Amino acid sequence: MIARVAALTALLVGAAGCASAQPARDGVPVVVGFYPLQYVVEQIGGDRVTVTNLAQPGAEPHDLELSPQQMAAVADADLVVYLAGFQPELDEAVELEARDRALEVSNVVSLIEGGATHAHDELTGEHAAESAAEPAEDSGRDPHFWLDPTRLSTVATAVSERLAAADPAGAAAYATAATSLADRLADLDRTYAQRLATCQRREIVVSHAAFGYLAERYDLEQIGITGLSPDVEPTPQRLAEVTAAARHHGATTIFFETLVSPRVAEAIAAEVGAATAVLDPLEGLPAGSTGDYLSVMRTNLDALTTALSCA
User: Fold this and answer.
1) Minimal CA–CA distance to 221: which of 241, 238, 245, 237?
2) How many domains does the chain fold into?
3) I want to staple 50 with a disulfide (CB 3.0 to 4.6 A). Which of 27, 93, 166, 173 is the partner?
4) Is the pLDDT of residue 54 over 90?
5) Average confidence (pLDDT) over 53-76
6) Which residues, other chains included, contact 264 with Cβ-Cβ below 8 Å and sequence gap of 6+?
């Protein structure tokens, strides 16, 4: 893969050398790996930045394959904001083209291990909740930190500082915008905490284990049908475990996602007599969406309070 990326880079360099002139750039050019990072950069940078999101709307960002044009954007960016390990091709492109101009966000925000949960209940007379809450394929760090607004706020501070370094004339504007975003994220955090404080249930059954940070922050228990990767098919044993856990906890809703097929979630819901609903991991927005991070998070909260019978 590195060889392919290097070949693309050489092709682009050659093409650039043949060009008589380069087009003028509007704003500080920033490349991001996926939507939540785009949201942060746009909120802080405003019209002083031009943001290129390498993940296409409606596509799984994990599966990113860089085009020559995207490689050129990485090479030309004043700042690349990404999460190491989440999009391997972008990791390689940064190593080749932008090591000195990159913000790797796990350097500024703490990540938890995949499958982290609060499960310690009994399902069938035995302590089976751990296996029901943690799919066998879970391993490594959970990348979905943005589902905890306080962690996203930490990233926003770092983005503001890096934009100020790239564009000193805009430093005051970036700092002001970062403070404003931090206030909105703090308000979202308070709203989540208040509305989820008095729920009848605290277990959420989800199509893949993307909600560990949300569960940790708001004292919920995540039961994932699959692990950190949405592409892994659950085993029959896993389906039986999740079905048993859903029955045991009296789950009224089985959650699926906007970018993943609902087929398995619907099958479990039918088995236990539950409804289905969307809980969006916010890895990306669907094509044509008019929402943003805050609106999707609020929609998620509405879905959670309904599913968990919160007062």
Assistant:
1) 245
2) 2
3) 27
4) yes
5) 93
6) 207, 225, 234, 239
Cβ distance 279 to 260 under 8 Å? no
Residue 169 placed within a domain? no
Residue 127, pLDDT score: 38
Q: 137 with 55, same domain?
A: no
Helix axes 35-45, 149-166, angle to 10 degrees: 50
Residue 18, classified by CB atoms within 10 Å of its CB into exposed (0-12), middle (13-18) or buried (19+), is exposed
Contacts (Cβ under 8 Å, ≥6 apart) of 76: 25, 29
**pLDDT confidence band for 7 (50 / 70 / 90):** very low
Is residue 205 located within the same domain as residue 93?
no
pLDDT value of position 124: 37
Does one domain contain both 54 and 139?
no
| Domain membership flag for residue 259 | yes
Q: Which domain holds residue 244?
A: 129-145+195-307
> Is the domain of 101 the same as that of 140?
no
Domain match, 65 and 135 both: no
**What single letter denotes the amino acid at residue 264?**
V
In a domain, 152, yes or no: no
pLDDT of 303 strictly over 50: yes
Q: Report yes or no: 48 and 170 within 8 Å, Cβ to Cβ.
A: yes
User: Is there a single domain that holds both residue 136 and residue 100?
Assistant: no
**Separation between Cα atoms, residue 83 and residue 160, nearest integer Å:** 17
Report the chain's mean pLDDT, rounded to a whole number: 86
Neighbours of 240 (CB within 10 A): 13
> Do 4 and 99 sit in the same domain of this protein?
yes
Dist CA 60 CA 56 (whole Å): 8
